[in-house]
Structures are given as structure tokens and as C-alpha cells.
Amino acid sequence: MSTKKHSVVILGAGFGGIAAARTIAAAHRDGVQVTVIDRSSVHVFTPLLYEAASGFVEHENLGTAKLLHTGVTVDCASLFSQWGVDFVHDHVVGIDWERREVQLGVMSPVRFDDLIVALGAEVNYFGIEGMKEHALILKTVHDADRVRQRVHDMLHMKEMGKRETLNIVIGGGGATGIELACELTMLLRKHMVKGHLKVGDFHITVVEASPRVLGAMGAELSDFARERLMRLGVHLHLDSAVKKVALGHVTIVPRACKPGETTDQLLCDFQKEGEKVLDADLVLWCGGIRGSSSLEALGLSLDARGFRVEVGPTLEAPNKQNVYVIGDSALLIDPSTKQPVPWLAQAAIAMGETSGKSVLSRVSGGDAVAFRFPKFPAVVPLGGKYAVATAFGRKFKGSVAWFLHEAATLMYFLGILPPWTAVRLWWRGTVLYTRND
What we know:
FAD/NAD(P)-binding domain; globular
């Protein structure tokens, strides 16, 4: 009698990968072994990365970055070991489909019977001239470190009299861009309280190519966010697009008109000039993401844009047996809205749970499980104890939405960690990151 275990391999230790591993492991199915592979040794709670990038620490030192990481990272080896799941810290270089093996950069290939691809997303620069070379992004803790270090360097140069003002330009008025704009303003205001800056010493500008910030959250919450930004002193350029980024400045232009639109309908405030040049000591690009470029090396069929794997309700990869693609790696169309499932952590978690259930069902001789297309809550912090949120079929704003944000963060950590560890991690982050308030 063979003792060979049914091998389930999960590529990626993000929200979707963790949800899939937890779902399968919770079934305690004998003869099934789960292995998660990721190039990072830590799971990053990306919704709080903006906090690690903008957190105020009174005395900067070599331990500052490590301190700020403690509220957003979880060690992968410890996380998965509690469920009896193996973790491999390595990067995927390809897949041998005949042998059904994942090929790794350093370690030996890993055999699989079922494969779940959850490789996440990466930044899309849309071919904007100079953007990749001159802008900073926010996808990893190391990105957060670079943002904070750049701000710290700018403040030091200001203190030394080598810079008159600090000019920060953020491309993209979605969740990440707005979170950063608000928290960086709070950070610099904290430096004003400490006497390091005065009124007029810094300018933060958001460039958004649509007529609204946080457009996906509806007009009411979008307007609340815009008013909050204006009260904080953040400058907004709506219906405007970044044309070019160079050292020290950004060139923006009115966005292209949609069919049936005319230029006089745009909210862009420099249409007559045709373009505008903004001083920029720091450029942050939050204007778009795409599926991981690693997908191209796996031999999977990508969508027409070449960014993601188009899947159906069971999340199965086309023409591949027992292979599921989830999270930001998957392009799944909601039949009711005719729109792709959004790039949200909650969506990745739901997909991970669905793929895990499919694996368990198939092992038992059943069929794959279909994704249910739930309504996803969303919350966007706006600096201090302010936020906007949609949840339970309602809209929330202000301190109530901020409370929902904190509750959602705690609930996530409770879902993947032992209770005391989860509460300690959440509380440590809450105390650390509210120093700007």
C-alpha cells in the first residue's frame, strides 16, 4: 500500500494563499500535505503599509524600520507551522507540467497533485516616461522603508537649510494614494508641532485621472474624502494624468476625453495651458497594478492584456488539471455586474477559501466548488481617527468608519494567529501608528 501523500502546493503567502492553506489544513484530512512557497519570509498585511511608510518615531535610529514593521508583518514559517503546513522560502522560476513539479531558484523542485497560484500583483507604470526610474511605490515593507527614508532625508536637508520646501506628488487617487496623502500630512504636521517645520514648508499633491478620489466608493464617501483632503491642505488635480516624471518635477496633462465627452466637462484646472509642471522632491506612484509578471514564466494562458489568468467560477486555470488561480493573479468576471472581481484583500481571501474547498472536494471524489461573488466591504483611512467605509449594506464615515477599520484589522489577525498573539500584534500596531494623530 502506498504511503505517498496527496501534495497541494500554493504559490504565494499573501491573503489568498493563506486562506487556501488554512481552509485545507482545517479539514485535518489524512494523506494531504500542503506546501506554501513564497520569495518573502514574512506575510505583509498590505492594508497597513501606508502606516509603516509614514509612522512618526521621535528619535530616528537604525531600529526604526524594524519597529514599524512589527505592526504589519507575520513570520511565515511560524504562521504555517501552526496548521501543519510546510513553508518554502524561495522564488518560483517555472513549472514542469509533465512532471507536475514547481521549479525553484535555489531548492529542489516540489511535486504537486493540486496547484493553487496566488502570486499577487505588481505595480503597473503604464509606460509613463520616467515613472519607474524616479518614483517610489508601496508594495512591500522595503518600499515603505524607502518612502520614510526619503521623507526623513528631505526633513534633514530642510533643517540644514539646503531645501526651502518639501514637495510630494502622489499619482493616483485610489485607496493607497489617499491613505498616503493623509498620513504623510499627519506625519509632517507632527514635525510642525515639534518645531521642525512651519506652515507653508511642505506641499502634498494628488493627481487623479478621474473626476473623483476613491471613485469606487460612490459620490457621498468620495466627497467626504475630498473635503477631508482639502481640510488637511492636500492639493488635488482631478481629471489629470501624469505625462512624465523627471528628477525634481512631474509633468501632468488633462486626461483624454471618453467617447461623447468634451474638454470643457473635465475638472482639470489647467486645460488652457495644456500641461502643468509640478515641483516634486518625492514622487509616489499609486496609479495602478497588474498581475505578477511571474505568471508569464509558468506557462499559463493570460488574458488579452497579458496581465492575469482568466478563470471561471471554479477558479480553474484553462486547460490545466487541478490548477487554480486566485486573488490578483486571476481575472474573474462577476456575472451580475459584468466587471472583474476587485483587487481587494477580501476578494483574495474568498477565492482562497473557495480553491481550498475545491481541493478537499476533489480529493474526496467530488467536484470543484464555485465562487459565490459576495459583496465586499471596503474601508479607507483618512488620517487621524477618520475613515470612510462600506459594510453591511451601509456607508460609514468619520470616527465610526475608523473604528470599523481597526475592528477589521483585529479580526483578520485573529483569523490567522493564536488569539493572544493576534491581539498583541494589533495593539502594538495601533499604539505605534496613532502617534501621528
